[in-house]
Amino acid sequence: MTSGQIAVHWKEEGYIAPPARFIGQANAADPDIFQRFAEERFPECFKEYADLLDWDAYWHTTLDTSDPPFWKWFVGGRLNACHNCVDRHLATQRNKAALIWVPEPESEATLAITYQELHKRVNEFAALLRDFCELKAGDRVTFHLPMVPELPVSMLACARLGVIHSEVFGGFSGTACGDRIADSGSRVLVTMDGYFRNGELADHKVKADEAVDAAAKLGADVDKVLVWRRRPGAYASQSPMVDGRDFFVDDLLQTYRGKQVEPVSMPADAPLFLMYTSGTTARPKGCQHSTGGYLAYVTGTSKYYQDIHPDDTYWCMADIGWITGHSYIVYGPLALGTTSVIYEGVPTYPDPGRPWRIAERLGVNIFHTAPTAIRLLRKLGPDEPRKYGYRFKHMTTVGEPIEPDVWRWYHDVVGKGEAVVVDTWWQTETGGFLGSTLPALQPMKPGSCGPGVLGVYPVIYDEDRNVVEAGSGNAGNICIRNPWPGIFQTIWGQPERFVDLYYRKYCADPDSKDWHDWPYLAGDGAMLADDGYFRILGRVDDVINVAGHRLGTKELESAAITVEEVAEAAAVPVLDELRGRAVEMYISLKPGITGGDDIRGKVIAAIETQIGKIARPQNVWIVSDMPKTRSGKIMRRVIASISNFADVGDTTTLSNPEIVDDIRHQVQSEKLARGEAPRPLTPEEEAEIKAFGRTE
Ligand code: WTA
Questions:
Q1: Is the CB–ligand 1 distance for residue 426 below 6 Å?
Q2: Model pLDDT for residues 514-562, shown as the tens digit of each residue
Q3: Is the pLDDT reported for residue 5 higher than 80?
């Protein structure tokens, strides 16, 4: 974001106070908590989060900064994440539902899994992983699982053994899964035969075959593919089982019935899992999260920011294949011993009243989703929530900026004006929340996430490391000044990239051992109002946030250029009413090649196979050439401006400025003809588009 230059004139929204009913029961209702987490208490303040867990050995050092920026939390401590999420609740609440699974078909019964049963299932699967797959602490296992209870069971079984799990979002393609298998060095893939999505039983096992092939091409051999069956005994996939490689989990489990596995006591800084995310290059980044710091952080923030009590029924509609699901469906809520709801399908199936029926039937009182889902549910069923008798005390929005009018519908109609709303800003890398209001103690302000969360101190810097002052009306790069327990430990196998991408830019002194010199660069543009509330504007790197999914432009582009006819490709974001942003691809063809829809189709197919359907571009424009700098770099900001009908800015430094008008004419006249011209951009959106591709 080009800071210091954007005078923003968005309307400052008024405050909305949390309802008295909420405050009366909130976990954090005493303002004394701000003292406990005051900056002068850092890092010891986070003892309060760690003390929510059971430790096998207590730690001696809260924060070790001897090897910046590889921070170590709760050093000397030992614990097991599975014990903390399952075993320790057995004494007092073995018969309470830990998970309630709602299958997509409404005719299929809801499944409640008690803590007792979860314990059994996790132990049996852990025994299988240990004895049949010969996995041990520190090994990696890749999952490609949909929204079924077998996913948290698999995660917790790994955690029990100290095995590092790496779940790849079920909607990603087999090839994308294979890349991640190879990167993490997993020998075992855990998948499922099929699952319901939008009324169809999707064949998922077929992706496992593609994944194994893709991994093999990268030199990584998968020995075993474990296939959970959506309906044990009835195989739902067309893909043949490969002898000696593929095994039905329900068959194998016969041998492990009733087996107990001692939780392995892990050092606090042992990795718990990897979560891959997109960035500036085509190679995805495996964000490595720790056991002690991560679990303490998600448990503490679940308690104070999600306001989870053990007797709540909590429903986060995100996919467990993303960080939100790991932190705020599985680890945080289960560590607090609550009931966490998992829904298999899409929120609008079979109609946009579905989420509210689920909420009513299960008595959900805490609800958590993303702006994309809220926009869609509002568009398709603006009055649906009124028809159902649920009562939420608390609601979360996460993953993208939320427009104030969308926020208001969420608060007034979904929350019936009775629920407090938190807009939580954070990232795959950060493990848990970074910016949010503390729900009983800080008023809501639509469109702003709020201040930094307890113990997290954000700052906005301009390009020259000057602090962008509160209330200045200027945007800049939001950073976190201090480490916190949930921060990822490194990028799996790429420690230099970890330092370069997240710390290099604002590091005051690379030799310093003082954490004050190592602010964390989040990669988002943001503004800070006088009241200390942050407004997140969006990514400043080459990431496009489509419906809350991070897509790397380089990943999209490398998929497009695998099409033989394509010479060059560039991916840019366009404003989208429902998904926030959508992707448009620009391609130029090799000399002598002509073509239209056939090539466009191939590009779309390549992106869908190599990344997944979520990355499907809205348009593929075939242009005669790309606007380029004299050194030959594609100027993505110029084509992004064209796609969004924004001012292209200065093009005099281009080597081929004449191309800009041609492309503009070609793209915009077609968009106008199709009625696809976007509404005029706000100043913040314009700034985002103009900064696009700046990190190259
Ligand atoms: C964006 C999701 C505005 C942001 C937890 C961030 C948000 C990226 C918000 C991380 C929010 C997340 N308001 N923008 N409340 N929450 N973002 O890694 O650009 O999938 O950098 O983690 O989503 O996406 P990720």
A1: yes
A2: 999 999 999 999 999 999 999 998 888 889 999 989 998 999 999 999 9
A3: no
Look up residue 533 and give its amino acid. Answer: Y
Cα–Cα dist 168/185, whole Å = 14
Pairing of β 271-277 and β 164-167 = parallel
Q: What angle do CA 165, 166, 167 make, to 5 degrees?
A: 115
Protein residue closest via CA to atom 22 of ligand 1: 427
Best residue among 536, 540, 543, 551 to mutate for probing ligand 1, ranked by most atoms within 8 Å of CB: 536
pLDDT band at 2 (very low <50, low <70, confident <90, very high): very low
| DSSP bridge partners of 582 | 574
The closest residue, in CA terms, to atom 23 on ligand 1 is: 399
pTM for the full predicted model: 0.94
What is the Cα–Cα distance from 356 to 268, expressed in whole angstroms?
40
Q: What 3-state class would DSSP assign to 214?
A: helix
Looking at residue 1, its pLDDT comes to 39
Provide the b/e sequence for 591-623 (b: ≥16 CB within 10 Å): eeeeeeeebbebbbebbbbbbbebbbbebbbbb
Question: What whole-number distance in Å separates Cα of residue 93 and Cα of residue 560?
Answer: 52
Alpha-carbon gap, residue 344 to 281, rounded angstroms: 32
pLDDT tens per residue across span 172-230: 999 999 999 999 999 999 999 999 999 999 999 999 999 999 999 999 999 999 999 99
> Hey, what are 353's tokens?
């009243």
Tell whether omega for the bond before 350 is within 30 degrees of 0, i.e. cis. yes
Cα 359 to ligand 1 centre (Å): 25
356 CA distance to ligand 1 middle (Å): 25
User: Does the CB atom of residue 319 touch ligand 1 within 6 A?
Assistant: no
